[in-house]
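Researcher: First entry.
Model:
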Amino acid sequence: MSLGRPEWPEVGELVVATIQQIVGYGAYVRLDEYGKEGLLHISEISSRWVRNIRNHVRENQKVVLQVLRVDPSRGQIDLSLRRVSKDERRKKMEDWKKSRKAETLLKSAAGILKISEEEIFEKAAVKLLDRYGSLYAGLEAAAKRGLEALTEAGVPKRIAKTLAEIAREKIVVRGVTIHGVLELTSMAPRGVEVIKGTLLELKKVAKENGTEATLYTLGAPKYRIEVNAEDYKKAEAALEKIITTAQSSLSGHDGKFSFTRE
């Protein structure tokens, strides 16, 4: 099943790959998300001198690499290991595992409903990707809020019912969640960029306060925000700072902000 992924990765993108063959000048890898072969040159394995490649990577090992160059006409992809930080590696692997799990759950739903993977991709996956940014985030929302989280994204009720049941059974939701609706507008010349920057800043503020914020559009200028935390005290504190940040960000760019608690 392809979740709308392009045929080739983009330069600068982080990818999950499997080491296939180690040679004197580096290692050939298989990009798990694209099904293509790439080269990890010895000079891109470590920032230090590499005497023995096998001291750094081994066959069948899963690694996170950064894409340096892509040449579709020659079928070549050059990759780097040394340019990927520990935090980037951890997050990418976590996202990749979630993506694989989400695809598995979607295929399971297709089997139960006796429909093709192509049909469930078109009627559910595409809509969840558009609404939540990732398939896993959409299924996680279903595990938290049930059927409504899927139907409000445009998933047909019959499919949504089965997906919600699977999500609640297979996805463990920890902690607490509070949510509401943000309304952000800016009349500045670069108002769209201001809004995008503000939304990114809100997620950063949530993380800095030990929580996680999920944002998705309800149709501009309205955005739903969900703040996940270990307990309500931490979630409420983070939400308060998120609201303050949004107000401050927009006030300096000829903007308006409002928040409605759900």
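Researcher: Second entry.
Model:
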Amino acid sequence: MLLAQADTISATHLYICNTMVVSMTKIAFILPDNRLIKRSKEICRELNLEDQVDFYRCDIDEAITLARVLDKTESIDAIISRYGIAHVLMQENLSVPVIEIMVTGQDLAQAFFEAKIRAGTKHPRITYLAFSNMSNDIQRLSRIMGIDLEICELEAPEDITRIIDTLPKKSTDILMGGATSMAYGAKKGFVTQVVESGDCALREAFKSAQKVILAKNNERRHTEEFITLVNSVREGVIYVNRDRKIQYVNSQVENLFNIRFDEVKGLDLRKVLSDNPQFNELYTALDNCESRKESYHDILVELNSKWLAFGIEPVIVNSNVLSLVITVMDVTTIQETEIKVRNEVTKNKFYAKYRFDDLVGDSPEIKETKRLAREFAAVDTTVLITGESGTGKELFAQSIHNASARKNGPFVAINCAALPVNLLESELFGYVEGAFTGAKHKGKAGLFEMAHHGTIFLDEISEMEMYAQSRLLRVIQERQVMRLGDDKYIPVDVRIIVATNKPLAEQVNKGEFRQDLYYRLKVLTFKVPPLRNRNGDIQVLSKYFLSHYCSKHNRIRTFSKDALNLMEKYSWPGNVRELRYFIERMVIVTKQKEITAQQLMTYWDDRDFGEKTENQQIQQTPIDEAERIKQAIEKAEGNISRAARALGIDRSTIYRKLKAKSKD
């Protein structure tokens, strides 16, 4: 209830009407004196604070009840009062600040001057009833003004009646103090003088209240920002002081431990969590964190059949640990987040583009291969794909992935022949910081980790060194990897598809490939047929690639019938890859709309069709691999690129094979 006329209000009436009282209140102005309230309202209008202040006239006892209600309903930001009321309210441990209207030296001098006039003597005897928070300058001012002053200090409201009742009337000329005490003194027959605060003191009180409110609002805003911040993180946050008393917990902790902050605030951490021995490592880490001023991470605790991961950060000010911030997270949540992050990071970088419908061909051979691959896609077993270089083994691997239950996971492909053995290991299995010279500062996840919940495709598996083969075998068997330089295993859920253009059985017999790994890989296996064995597919693919590259390069080209027939006769040692890029070349370099057989002969990359039988023999004769490479190089007159194209392999493969042969 807003007391616009400053009428007397009872505590009971206030409590009943508190919803009306608090709705507009910002500052509560509580005084027992109507005259001071009237002057205070004038100051409010002067300072444009009329809408921010509610005025209440009540005695000390009513003021206490009023303040408690206002504080409980959180309707005000500050209380302004004076003398005894302010002193008493300051001892109430209210959450709102109490601003005291001070008594200035000018106010005291005015009161002493009026008291001397009323006493009718130059040196009156004055008894001053003052609470202990009053200024100590009263004695000095009284001596200056020639006043015989006695100060009676009040500690509590009941002291007013006790002191006045026992004070002899003849011992004092004037009784001086606040409005409440002077009202009682007048009843007891004393000559009284109320010490009133002047306008300067009132203005200063209002300004102080505004400053306090501004600071409180800033603090409230910062607190809300802090609460919003800590509640927005996925980790649970527990803030404790040096005595391990809880100062704050966020909503995640409330949900995780089924507690409420207002119920655990100020309680010992051990009482809130548990005395379970499972938490001993956490409590030890808290002690060490404070003594060593170090952070701790990944403290695992099992609670109610679930694992929690704790971390501790010390709050250090001036080299002293003032408090500790504890973070906690359900390991299951961490794992789910890890999966989501992995998928988000890898979905644009590691994805399978091709599906079975993208595999062009109508031959019985390719149809049967696709049928078998589709069956393999339905299960999660390791797949071994064999076939000559350029037949499209990776396209089949991608199609298997996209037809499997892992289609929404990453598809990670790597050519084992394209990297040196040491680099291949670090790429596949990752490494920790300091594992080797040049390692990234925080280490790096390997491709197996990046393929988590997806598929990894290892092309040219035959080129993998024996040590890497043993590590691959462990991944297949244990479904976990260990980064280079680390001593911990990381679980991975990944399907493995491998491919080779070499007969692995022969490599096993030669001791170049692990037998146990070979048997692990060949559980499900199929061979992609070479293009020359795909009856009718050369023309189908030729027309498909012609349409594709005409669209890409904005050209109009067609094949003559004799051109298609000629391409059908060629062995295509580079298989589909060779056919594809040869047709792109023809689309670009030919000028006529129709591509004829004669033009094919002209642009056949330094080879005529008389070579096809020899090239085919180079490809098919079961002679020593090094000798076959040597023949191809001689046939190409030392041109490695031409030799590689004739063999259907990469230039890097030729260099590597020659280097290996020279070591032998």
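Model: Note on the second entry: The chain has five domains: 11-100, 105-196, 233-334, 356-527, 538-663.
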